[in-house]
Amino acid sequence: MAVSSPEGQGQFPLPKILTYPSSTPPTLITQGAEGRVYKTTHLDPSRPCILKYRPPKPYRHAILDARLTKERITAEAHVLARCAREGVPVPAVYATDPRAGWMMIEYIDGVPVRQAINEFLGKRPETDQEKVAAEETDNVPLIELLRRIGATVGGLHGTGNVHGDLTTSNMMLRPFSTTIAAEGSKARMVEGDVVLIDFGLATQSSSEEDRAVDLYVLERAFASTHPRAEKLFQHVLDAYEKSFKKAGAALAKLEDVRRRGRKKSMLG
Amino acid sequence: MSTGTVGRKSTSRYFPPSFLKYFKRKLKWSLKKEAQSSAVTPPSAPVPPLSTGSSLTKIEVKNKHNNSFTTTTPRTHFDTADSPKMTSSNPSQKKRRIALGCEGSANKLGIGIISHDITTGEATVLSNIRDTFVSPPGTGFLPKDTAAHHRAFFVRVAKTALSTAGIPISEIDCICYTKGPGMGAPLTSVAIGARTLSLLWNKPLVGVNHCVGHIEMGRTITGADNPVVLYVSGGNTQVIAYAEQRYRIFGEALDIAVGNCLDRFARTLEISNDPAPGYNIEQLAKQGGRILLDLPYAVKGMDCSFSGILTRADELALMMKQGKKGPDGEPFTPADLCFSLQETIFAMLVEITERAMAHVGSNQVLIVGGVGCNERLQEMMGAMAAERGGSVYATDERFCIDNGIMIAHAGLLAYETGFETPLEESTCTQRFRTDEVFVKWRD
């Protein structure tokens, strides 16, 4: 994903909704393969929001392109609305226009979980002394965060949806409003509600296989982004197990998925 | 590959009478053509007559190439057999390494000879001979018949490759063959041929991964440095990027390969398999475009699935044969079906490639494999790459479609790093993932 830059904005035409006169100029946050994410406001200049825009793809047949854009925006909004109704922390949907290919959702003020965990873990210990110190670090706040991640993912699966691309980059940490921890303390870095974002690949599914693949993807992503906290991943699964009724079956399936990997063997 | 390529109509283990009649006609035609072509071949390098009595195919010798490319900056230049650069085989003056590659993982039997300049590493194609087993319309190529074809034609193709290259056998450094992936019986037949050459001439063997062969040949021909590779053929659909000595698979088909989907749809419509079913679908699709029929679109992350699309396309073809009308109340034609199928599946391929490019942060894309010849796919990929400020690299049918030269090229690259396959380990396998190969020759 390309990071926003002043050139980045000039490079693409804005979606029509963002060309109307407004007191808050839109800023491009990220640009992926699928679409672009802008930050702007909804109704009121004090209410920040995210605008996800899927631009038309020039290589696709116009009819096919319109169909896919519409289907995908609608599907994403559906999953988000369903999760919000069931109490899973996700951004609220403010407005959609599937034909024009955009969707406005709540702006989550916080940092990605990936960043929070890495800041908590600090720099890679180099000397032996530092390694000992790192092991002695009190991991309790981190473990609590991992348990909240497990519970949130369990909550999502409990609603009959799977995310499709679970990584710690696709989770935001929204700080608790009434924080009592001291400013600058390490525990404060990993405090907050875990909010799932980027439902671009989400689907409605209650199958154990899909849930297990979701967990497997998270496990692999976690191991590659936070190798030093890999041992703690079990806490995510522990919390997941208690979060909804059929979690046990999904975890049993996870064993199978792990054993074969996500990929099939090549059939030639 | 082995699953889908089995013909639906001819499920019999033996040739039906019509099949034999078809091949008798083909043979007559091929002998006539051979007589014409041998008239222009110099008498010093006659094509040896076929020793076995097989009547399974026609000869197609596609080597007289021009140097036009659909791509940018070719790093390689091509010598035809008429102008071999050197004939000396004295090892002390050795300036180049030469490999002979044998390919036969599907219905193409290809033998090619390549030379690498020892100092510059520049690759020169000395010969690239291919012979395709073409099955009648409405049928696929069965492993058994394909293997029989490869066995029958191996000697002839090998001799043509040698005489076209115009080099003495003593100059060849190694014999490369396809270890896999592919259809079992044809792979085994060609491996036997390669082992025979190795023992006969006392040359080391090098087993090559078919997919890596495609990638390396594509990189060399187009000069693409570190592209995201889309490998699309009758048996494989993969999006590949290089990282840390391996070609890593980022996305792939979850069920049948894209080329298999096209081949089988060609069978449903009973389109000719000559020169290739996909080529005939492409030509037919050019007449379509009046409507876009609704087909499933199955992309999941960087993976995709084609079997559902084929089922739906077959259903629509059946409706068409029964004279039913399309969604807009008008009847539709095979051309409309081919057009809709191409638009849908190629959009899926471009989408997964785009996702992989965004993921690894590359803006070059290289298309290899038989389906890569399709100009519509190249055009769509070009539009996507242009939007990302990148470029698309593709090759033409000589290098896209399975050939011996790519096996020779990839094998020689491995051989130069000291890799050899001992005779007792010179097996072949139907399952051989691209990421199993340790790529020692790149950094």
TrEMBL record, chain A:
Q: Quick one: a GO cellular component term?
A: cytosol
Known EC number(s)?
Answer: 2.7.11.1
GO terms assigned for molecular function: ATP binding; hydrolase activity; protein serine/threonine kinase activity
Give the range the annotation lists for the signal sequence. Answer: none
* Intracellular or extracellular location(s): Chromosome, Telomere; Cytoplasm; Nucleus
Keywords attached to this Swiss-Prot or TrEMBL record, sorted alphabetically, are: Activator, ATP-binding, Chromosome, Cytoplasm, Hydrolase, Kinase, Nucleotide-binding, Nucleus, Phosphoprotein, Serine/threonine-protein kinase, Telomere, Transcription, Transcription regulation, Transferase, tRNA processing
What GO biological process terms are annotated to this protein in UniProt? tRNA processing; tRNA threonylcarbamoyladenosine metabolic process
The source's domain of life comes to Eukaryota
Where do the Protein kinase domain residues begin and end?
A: 23-268
**Catalysed reactions, as listed in the record:** L-threonyl-[protein] + ATP = O-phospho-L-threonyl-[protein] + ADP + H(+); L-seryl-[protein] + ATP = O-phospho-L-seryl-[protein] + ADP + H(+)
Q: Assembly state and interactors?
A: Component of the EKC/KEOPS complex composed of at least BUD32, CGI121, GON7, KAE1 and PCC1; the whole complex dimerizes.
Family that this chain belongs to = Belongs to the protein kinase superfamily. BUD32 family.
Q: Give the PANTHER family listed for this entry.
A: EKC_KEOPS COMPLEX SUBUNIT TP53RK, NON-SPECIFIC SERINE/THREONINE PROTEIN KINASE
Q: What does this protein do?
A: Component of the EKC/KEOPS complex that is required for the formation of a threonylcarbamoyl group on adenosine at position 37 (t(6)A37) in tRNAs that read codons beginning with adenine. The complex is probably involved in the transfer of the threonylcarbamoyl moiety of threonylcarbamoyl-AMP (TC-AMP) to the N6 group of A37. BUD32 has ATPase activity in the context of the EKC/KEOPS complex and likely plays a supporting role to the catalytic subunit KAE1. The EKC/KEOPS complex also promotes both telomere uncapping and telomere elongation.
Protein's recorded name: EKC/KEOPS complex subunit BUD32
From TrEMBL, chain B:
Superkingdom of the source species: Eukaryota
The protein's organism comes out as Rhypophila decipiens
* Record protein name field: N(6)-L-threonylcarbamoyladenine synthase
Q: CDD domains annotated for this entry? A: ASKHA_NBD_OSGEP_like_euk
Task: Return the EC number.
Answer: 2.3.1.234
Q: How is the cofactor bound?
A: Binds 1 divalent metal cation per subunit.
The answer to whether UniProt assigns keyword Transmembrane to this entry is no
User: Which co-factors does it depend on?
Assistant: a divalent metal cation
Q: Where does substrate bind?
A: Y231, V232, S233, G234, G235, D263, G278, E282, N374
Give the source lineage, highest ranks first: Eukaryota, Fungi, Dikarya, Ascomycota, Pezizomycotina
Q: Name one GO cellular component term.
A: cytoplasm
The subcellular location is: Cytoplasm; Nucleus
- Region named Disordered: 34-95
Enzymatic reactions: L-threonylcarbamoyladenylate + adenosine(37) in tRNA = N(6)-L-threonylcarbamoyladenosine(37) in tRNA + AMP + H(+)
Q: Where does a divalent metal cation bind?
A: H210, H214, Y231, D402
The Gcp-like domain extends over 131-408
